[in-house]
Task: structure prediction
Amino acid sequence: MSLRRAAIAAFGGALLLLTASTVNAQAAGGTFSYIRADTGTPDEFDSPPNDVCLPIPGGAAHAENDTDATAFVYADSSCRQLLAIVGVGASWDETNPPPAPTHSVGFGSG
Result:
């Protein structure tokens, strides 16, 4: 293998490792599970991305944050009206003040 090919292969490998670690760093590890407010059925987000607003169709009446990131639950679907901050391993319920379902969630810095 020529020196040029070896350098290109090494650069490509380093770039691949950097990209893989960046992708993993942007997701919250674990599961955010919730009970839909409109149907009463369970649903969940697995390894949700950090710093992204995730709408919850039908809203959530109860949620469990079993991710490794803080969850921010919102009254609207665009993550603008903060209802509560749900820590790692904590849960949230619409019967806690204020009594309203959440319609979106964000992880990380909110």
